[in-house]
Amino acid sequence: STRENFTIQKNILYRMIKFFKNLFWKPRVEPEVLKLDYKAEELKIGFTLDYGLKNWEVIDKTMYVWENGVRDFEFTLEQKNEKKYLNYEPADQKFSIYWQEKLVNVCPDARKNMDGGNMDFNFSYEGKNYQLSSSAKASVKTSKERFNMVNWLFASDDENHFVSFNKYEDGSKEAYVGKSIHEHEVGNIFPSA
User: Fold this and answer.
1) What is the pTM of this model?
2) Is 6 exposed, middle or buried, given 0-12, 13-18 or 19+ CB atoms closer than 10 A?
3) SS3 of 6, please?
4) What is the pLDDT of residues 111-131, one digit of tens each?
């Protein structure tokens, strides 16, 4: 009958359209949008940024989990043979920048006091007076290793400059000098090419 022929032809046509559609049709892929406005807290290894009139590359990311559960992040920045450490405290939305100094040059008594556990003292460094601001233990995770440490943070009278003394689980000790910075001081943040 004519009606059956029409139905058969319709089914064949439908199957042919479906066959060719599946053969040639490709799903529509949205083009990737290039993000241009990264914030400092979005940094990842390989990103580049400007700070202090220099261009830096992020070569490592470190997470500190303090004994009170607070997490802070540190981004190791490298520019030629120079390193700085950009610290980000998400809980307070604060940024600071640090660089390593010789422990004996910062505070000659620090090593002895760290061994004795008596870090509640004041000292002067580069014309600023520092006093103990906080101390805590932390579990530290970098992209390459994990370890534990004790940190003593000293703040200047204006609370904008810092000296951080670290004692690591292997007994080694280091000193870092730093200062508070505003997020806008870190700019031109781009992912690696």
Assistant:
1) 0.80
2) exposed
3) helix
4) 999 988 888 889 999 999 999
